[in-house]
Amino acid sequence: MNEGQEMEEHFSLLLDKLKEQQMAEFRELFLALHIYEQGQFYQSIDEADRKQIYSYLSPKELADMFDVIEEDNENMKDYIAEMRPSYAAEMLSEMYTDNAVDLLNMLDKSQKAKYLSLMSTEDAGEIKELLHYEDDTAGSIMTTEFVSIVANQTVRSAMYVLKNQADVAETIYYVYVVDQENHLVGVISLRDLIINDDDTMISDVLSERVISVHVGDDQEDVAQTIRDYDFLALPVTDYDDHLLGIVTVDDIIDVIDDEAASDYSGLAGVNVEEVSENPIKAASKRLPWLITLLFLGMSTATLISHYEELVSEASILAVFISLITGTAGNAGTQSLAVAVRRLAVTDEKDNNFGRLIISEVLTGLVTGAVTGVAIFIVVGIWQHNFPLGFVIGMAMLCAITVANLAGSLIPMLMDKLGFDPAVASGPFITTLSDLTSVLIYFNIASLFMQYFV
Amino acid sequence: MNEGQEMEEHFSLLLDKLKEQQMAEFRELFLALHIYEQGQFYQSIDEADRKQIYSYLSPKELADMFDVIEEDNENMKDYIAEMRPSYAAEMLSEMYTDNAVDLLNMLDKSQKAKYLSLMSTEDAGEIKELLHYEDDTAGSIMTTEFVSIVANQTVRSAMYVLKNQADVAETIYYVYVVDQENHLVGVISLRDLIINDDDTMISDVLSERVISVHVGDDQEDVAQTIRDYDFLALPVTDYDDHLLGIVTVDDIIDVIDDEAASDYSGLAGVNVEEVSENPIKAASKRLPWLITLLFLGMSTATLISHYEELVSEASILAVFISLITGTAGNAGTQSLAVAVRRLAVTDEKDNNFGRLIISEVLTGLVTGAVTGVAIFIVVGIWQHNFPLGFVIGMAMLCAITVANLAGSLIPMLMDKLGFDPAVASGPFITTLSDLTSVLIYFNIASLFMQYFV
C-alpha cells in the first residue's frame, strides 16, 4: 500500500468518526496527523462536516492548521464565514500574526473590523500594526512572534527565556539581541547557545554583524538576502534600527514561488495560477490579453494593406511575411526574458540601463546577421533569385535588431517607471515586433523592387 | 553611508592587508565578515591575492566560505585548481558532503579521482556514496551530516549527543530517531527537546509520523514536500527505510529557483541564466534555437508559396497573414504555459492527460469564437466585405483551437516520454502554430474565394 492510499484510508476513517459524532476518536486520529495533512483533510470535506470540526477542536488547534494552509486558497473567506464569529476571532488571535494578517486581508473591510473588535486589545493591536504595511514589502510578510533578549545575561538565563517563548514564537532557532530601546544589536543562534557554556555571557558570544532588512524593503530583496546567506529567518527593522519582526524561510519560499509564477505568467500573457478547468472561465481569463493584442495586430494588418499594391505586383513577398515576423518575434522574446531576468536578479544600483540595451542591440545585430546570411543563401537558391534573398536577409537583420531593442528597452522602461517589468508579456513583444518587422520588410522590398521582380 | 559603500570600504581595507601581507589583521577583519560576504570578497579579487588567502586561512575556514558560494559559479574549477592539491582535498573534506559533491561534479574524472585519493578513507567514502546518485534526485542534493539518535534515552543524553555534533551537522534543529538497524522511526525537533524535561524519555516525545522521501525521488517533489509542510529539513531513506541523509531548506530554495529559471528559459527559448554580456557569446547561445526555428519557419514559407497564385489573385489575403499567425501564436503560448505549470504542480497520478487536453481545446474554441466574431465584424466593416470577414474569423477560430491543442498536447507528450515539458519552448509552439495557421487560413480562403473577391 503506498502513502497516497494510506492517507486516503486515514481520511475516510476520520470522516466516519466525524459523521458518527465520535469526538474523542476523531480528535485522537486527527491530531496524530501532521498539520499539513490536517489541512488537506479539512479542505476535502463539506461545510456540514467542517462545522462539526469547529465544535471538536479548540481555536488554537484549528489555528495551527490554518497556519500551514495555503493562504492563496480562494475558499478561506468561506471557511471563516461559516465559523461562529467569536470562535473565528479567537482562532485568528492564535495564528501567527503574519498569517492572520494575510487571512484578514482577504476579507472585506466590515468583516475585518468585526473580527478585530472581538479580539483582545493586545492581539488586535499586533495585527493592526501589520495590517497597514504595503503589499510585497518586508513588513507585509513579517511576523511579530520572535524571541528577543538583552545582551547583559548568561546563556542559562537566555535559554530560560527561550523555553518560555518556544510555544508562541514562530522560530526559536535565532534569538535577536536588543538594547534597552529595542534597537537590534546582535543575533545568536540556538546552535551557539547550546554549544556554549551555561555561564557564558550573551554579550561575549553574540554576533554583532547582524544582517537585517528594512520594513519597507521589497519582498524580492528579502528573499534574495535569505537565499544568499542561507538564513532560516531575517530580522526586520524600522529606519532607526528598532526590531519590528522577523521573516521566516517558509514565507520566503512562497515569495520565490509566487514571483517565479508571475514572471512566467507575464512571459506567456496568461495568469498560470488562476486558470480554471472550466473552458468558459479559462477563456474569460485569457481573452483580455488576446483581444488587446488582436487590436495591436490590426495595426499591422492596416499597415500591410497600405502595401497591398506592392504585394499584388510581387505576390512572392507574401510568402516571407510570417517567416520574418516569426523569427523577429522569437528573438524579441529571448531579449525580453533575458532583460526581465537580469532586472530581477541584479541590484538596483548595478543595473546599467544603457549597457544592457547596447549589449542586446549588438546581440541582435550578430544574430540578425547570421540569420540574414542564412536566409539570403536559402532563398537565393530556392527561388533562383539572389536579389530577393538579399531583401529577405536584410529585412531579417533589421527586424531582429529592432525586436531585440524592443524586448530589452520595454521592460527596462517599465522598471524605471515603477511597474513590474514582467508585465511586458512575451505575446505583447511578439505582436509589437510583428508591426515593426512588417514595416521594415515592405520598405526594404519597395526600395529594391526593381531588382527582384 | 549606506551598506553597499560600507562593504566596499571594508573590502578595500581587506585587500590592503592582503597586499601588505599582514596576516593577523587580515584574519581578524576577514573572519568578522559573514561567510557570504567572505565569499563575495574572495570572488572579487585576482588569483595572486586568492593564493595569499590559501596560506592565511585553514582549509576548514575556507570550507565554511565555499559552503555558501553559489555552486553554479563557473570559476569554481579554477579556484580549486589554483590551490595546492592537498589543501584543496582537505578543504573538500571539511565542506558539507552535499556541497563537496556538487563541487567535485564540476571537475573532470581524473581531477575528481586525485582529490578523493588525497582524502582520508572515511571522508572519501562519504563523498563517493553521494557521487553516484543521479542528477536532480533527492540523493543528489542530500547531505550526510545530520544528527540521529536512538529512542531509548532521555532528553538530557540526547542533548549531549546534539552538543557534540553541533559543530559538524548541517542542521541540529531536527534530530532523527533510528532503531538498531538504522531504520528511520521518528523525528524530534530541537524545540521539543528544549521544552521537555531533561528526564523525559525520547520514546515518549518523538513524533512517529515522520515524513520522508526516497533517495531516488525527483528533487521537485522533495521541494514540494518541504514547501507544503514548512519543514527546515527532510530525511532521505532508501527503499527499506534506512536513513541515508537529509535535504535542507537552503538547498531546496536553490532547487525552486533553478526549476523556475529553467521553466522560464524554456518558454523564452533562451537559457536566461547563462547569457553573457558579450554580444558574440550571447548570440552564440541564442542562435541554435533561432536557426532551428528559422528552418521550421521555412516550411511555412514553402507552404505559402504553394498558394502564391491565390495571393496574386486576392492580395488582400496577405494583409491578414500576420494577424492570424500572431493571434494563434499568442493563444498557443498561453496554453503551453498553463500545461507546463499544471504538469509541474500536480502529482503524477492526478494528471489526467485527456481532461487537460479537452479542457484546452474547449478553451481554444471559446477564445477562438469570441476572437473570430470580433475580427469578422471589424474586417467586414473596415473592408466593406463580410464574406472576407467570415473567412478571417473562421480561420482565426480554427487556428486558435489548433494552437491550443498543440500548446497543451506537446508538453504533455514530452512529459509522458520522460522529457522535461518546459523544453517545449514558447518560440517552438508559435513557429509550429504559424505553420498550421497558414495552412488553415489558405484552405478556408480558397474554399470561399468566389464570395469575397
From TrEMBL, chains A, B:
Gene3D superfamilies hit by this protein: CBS-domain, MgtE N-terminal domain-like, SLC41 divalent cation transporters, integral membrane domain
Keywords tagged on the record: CBS domain, Cell membrane, Magnesium, Membrane, Metal-binding, Transmembrane, Transmembrane helix, Transport
A single GO molecular function term of this UniProt record: metal ion binding
CDD domains reported for this sequence: CBS_pair_Mg_transporter
Pfam family, one: MgtE
Localization in the cell: Cell membrane; Membrane
Membrane topology type: Multi-pass membrane protein
Domain of life where this protein originates: Bacteria
One GO CC term, this protein: plasma membrane
PROSITE patterns: CBS
Transmembrane segments: 287-304, 316-340, 361-382, 388-410, 422-444
Record-annotated CBS domain positions: 142-205, 206-262
Its job: Acts as a magnesium transporter.
Oligomer status and interactors: Homodimer.
Similarity section: Belongs to the SLC41A transporter family.
PANTHER family: MAGNESIUM TRANSPORTER MGTE
Stated name of the protein: Magnesium transporter MgtE
